[in-house]
User: Fold these one by one.
Assistant:
Number 1:
Amino acid sequence: MDAFSQLIDGFGTALTPAHLGLAALGVLLGTFIGVLPGIGPAMAVALLLPVTYGLEPTGAFIMFAGIYYGGMFGGSTTSILLNTPGESAAVVTAIEGNPMARKGRGSQALAAAAIGHFVGGLIGTIALVLLAPTVAKLAIDIGAPDYFAIMVLAFIAVTSVLGSSRVRGFASLLIGLAIGLIGLDEMTGQQRLTFGSLELADGIDVVIVAVGLFAVGESLWVAAHLRRRPSEPIPVGRPWLGRDDLRRSWKPWLRGPVIGFPFGAMPAGGAEIPTFLSYVTEKRLSKNRKEFGHGAIEGVAGPEATASASAAGTLVSMLTLGLPTTAVAAVMLAAFQQYGIQPGPLLFERESELVWGLIASLFVGLTLLLLLNLPLAPVWAKLLKIPRPYLYAGILFFASVGAYAVSGQVVDLIVLYVIGLIGLAMRRYGLPVLPAVIGVILGPAAEQQMRRALQLSDGEIGGLFNTPMSIVIYAIVALILLWPLVRKLLPSRPAAPDDEPAEREPEKVG
């Protein structure tokens, strides 16, 4: 009850007119900035950090919380409507959200995403209130072998269910892993695949890779086919969820937080792995597996709820341990230090009013996000009525601006369009794009955790599976890989369609 009473006091702080206004302003700014391709919540918080210099700490962090959730939803909006993820956590949303938009169901996809954000964030924030100390304590005990096993599971699970064949899925993953190797070796400082360029020594930012493969690759593909097929605006569709949509979405909305919050709370967590796993889970459990890859609403609802719950989970590590697990958390940690506040085990005692006001503002921000964006869903969907040549020209412009804003280097623009050409070639030969993005995001982290585990075991291969958690995860990996063989040995019976292509066939685009 102590936590509950402190949360009530936090609502007293968050619901003052000034703080309520800051929360609403943060949600609006975050949504509008998040809609720009390549400019996600982390960059939004970083750009707006100087604006808060004149604010008192509680008001500043309440505004940051609104920007965080608003930016996440803005990134999902561009993923759904334009196939252009605003951040890495919104990559999975594009797989089903964009085909829905192309069928004239963009408003329903946006509504499913908005409600998913609300439900996932609500459950995640409640878990933050109740379980923060416990989850943080458990997360500390997770070692390098466990992290590496989790990442291997993400690699295998997603590449096994995407694409017209597993060979193409793994080929796409290898492309992503190769891109992820570019830069300096974190262990030795040796340059890898930089071709002597100092600008590539820091590696390629994942936002540039995601925007290049999705936005630029898609734009070039559409441009290559516009002459053959007339350019017609895509219909907006009706702006509400039907009974069938709600029936198919409510379970993914509830399953998402179960996957997202624990991963977000891990010291090396984030929203990438859980959103990938949520998509795989929903495809396996859905009765409409044949629809996946062509606009299944479960593939939007589940990952969006997962990402929002994971965002709440990241605050566990940041507030209780002082460990930023995402770029946004790192920027917020810098903001804490700017005010002379050090997150950690004693933060809840020393800055009780600020912390509980921040947590209460998460509930307020989620509610404002839902109230603002449900009515705006049809408005955002009208972006699709813009004629294709102008629409994709705008996408290329904003994608270029977003890539250049990452570090202000012209080389980033060159890399963006080189990766865009790779994305065009992948579409031409039927390789799914998502495994490549997974390889870029998780490849460097997986390598680091693998080498750390081997160092701890003096090079013994057994150091990769010497914990109970890692053994269980590798057993799941083996089951996923061997399941097609096992299924052939089982007695034949009518089965639901399983591995459907997650990428649109080339002839259907344009």
Number 2:
Amino acid sequence: MQIRPILAALRRHRLATLLIAMEVALACAVLCNACFLVAQRWKLIQTHSGVDENSLAVLTVNGFEPAQAADVNARMLTGLRAIPGMQAVTLISQVPFGPQVGAAGISRDADSFKSTMGVVDFVLGEPGTFQVLGLKLVEGRMPQADDYRPATNFAPMDAQVLVSRALAEHAWPGESPIGKEFWCDKLHFRVMGVVDHLARAHPRDWGAQAAEWTVFTPTLPGGSLAGTYLLRASPGDLPRVLREARDAVAKIAPDVVLDQENSQTITDLRTDYFKSDRIMIDLLIGVIVTMLGVTALGIVGLASFWVQQRRRQIGVRRALGATRGDILRYFQTENFLIVTGGILLGMLLAFALNLALMTHYELPRLPLYYLPIGALVLWGLGQLAVLGPALRAAAVPPVVATRSV
């Protein structure tokens, strides 16, 4: 198959060729960036919480003074533990996908402006919270009784803490984090262990890379560790246990206010938190399907128009010995050339669109491997779209050449 006659034919239909090429270019730019956005959102939705979600719920109360924290904690813990089916109740400051209360910047020395390591979530938990969460220790040791200290304002001073694997790899790449020190303003911390996973309260706000930058801090009840209770029950009993726990708050501590919205199972918190991301994924998939559909229809329409215009020319070629396969390959090659031109332009548009998204929405750079994937999709779409008209062209009989136009 010679390319020069095909190019000559395309030059005689510059406007139609340009329109289809521009349509393919736009589809390429949208396809690459939309697929990248879908992948980013999906990766966030799949964030590993690190906790035993199916067996955990959280119950939050507020409306009490800091001086009442010890009394409220004592009454709530005693009352909640008496609920049938309740396996454990402990205090915690925040849970994955719930309200964020402990985000702060950390550094490698007391001067936080010189060696910043990033902003992390501090999760405070009383004795037993580590086990109730179901965290998996991968290095170092678990908290011991003497590791639990009272929180001074934000967190305990000179605390022995556990960090997530993601934070350890970010802060000390290629090194063991055990024994490493870091600071949060004037608070000093030393790493005693590493957990496999522990998600932040709001992972979407920090992106997939920093979604698990967390520090588990053993803390004694009281002060900033009050009012948020981690409930554990068997997955089958958990909805009933949480419902009875919510109902029991009015009797256990009538002087506090139950936070209805944030007193849910961890599974429900995850579903609510990522609801907008799932909607966005559905919208982006709809955009992708629509754009590809419009592009395919454009190719089909143009190819069908050209087949109708060239029926006598096709008949002449058939009369001169061209086979059906020759005619079929002609139209497929012609479509391949148009789509290729559109893809080359579309790759430039894809980077331009990604640059705009990076500037206005702080998205990461589009990985290069999305471009060949987009090209393969559009090449395949173009060949499928042109197949019907090409088969009709190949079926034109040689006798057409003898008819008058």
Number 3:
Amino acid sequence: MRVSYAPAYYAPLPEGHVFPMKKFTGLHRYLTGQQLIYPENVVAPSPVDVASLLTVHTREYVHGIMEGTLNRKQQRRLGLPWSRRLALRSRLAVQGTINAGLMALEDGIAGNLAGGTHHAMPGFGEGFCVFNDVAVAIKVLQQSMWAKRILVLDCDVHQGNGTAKVFENNQDVFTFSMHGEKNYPFKKPPSSLDIGLPDKTGDKVYLRTLGDALDDIFSQFDPDLVFYLGGIDPLEDDHFGRLSLSMKGLQNRDEVVIRTVVEKGIPLVLLLSGGYAPTVKETVLAHAEMYKKALAWAS
């Protein structure tokens, strides 16, 4: 299985910042060190071009990120302090998702060892999301005629508000978000299908709800390509999660999604999205579970 990754996915943050930036290099090191992903199958992206970013984002916002002209309010909303390395990593990660989409269309399954930055809106970033890589990748793949009907399966604990907003009323993109109802963001633009879950939902109800939702989605929408945002923040010990999934429950979630898509013969893109376990090591190991499940189905 091929994946997108570049060392510059890491950009330094102030000491004590809550965002686990080191998880990107840590996940790459773990997957290659365990020989789950072979080095020759790691494809390094170049920075995404401005024209691609402008399919989703405003020129003013793109310029603000690339040139560092965001004001304090904009940086506070983003949740990340601007730096040239942050701007570079954000452009690399977007192209990584575009590349993963193309690789999935060729291979059946591919991934980006980053991505899933679903909170970014056309004119601003928020919730640690600079650019909306999923939305840009979809726009680029559609404009290039690589795919037309695209499904976003977003299982991050936070609703994919940016993606929902970009594709509202777009009949060729189905956005599904299953998230914590009382969790961030507090204003949730409607996805094609939203399922808001109560705090402490737990494995049994979560998995039953997900299975029913997937049956419903595929009964009404036949995609050419699926993007899966496999955020690990529904875990019970996540700093922001509150849905109380066990590790076994998270593994079963990934199994259900990946098996459902692969058995239907639909190309699948894997994206990390959020995860804030107590340590970077725990965060990395939890993200790796999605790739372990995918590798079992990619052979």
Number 4:
Amino acid sequence: MRYIRYVFLALLAIVLVSVALANLDPVTLQLLPEDMAILFGVQWRGDLPLFLVIFAGIVAGLLIGFVWEWLREHKHRAEARRRSEEARRLERELKRTKAQRDQGKDEVLALLDERR
């Protein structure tokens, strides 16, 4: 299984390098359209190779997707945390109840009752 992973990573590296080599031409990247940039006074622009723009878009999409899923699953994590805390509380209560029940008993009888 480890070798399959290495083969997959090698193929992915070959594809990414070939995409990068095929898209070396520079492109002008602007933060805002020209009219809005003049209105807000922010005229950032830069010349970057096209493959950097493509890879940055992929990375940005992945990060946005990860954050979106993390926010979406918040209710499930909160519910799991609540149930875990409730289970711990109930276990403590059960131990306390057993200790009160077995308070006057012989230690051997208390151990036998615990095993049931």
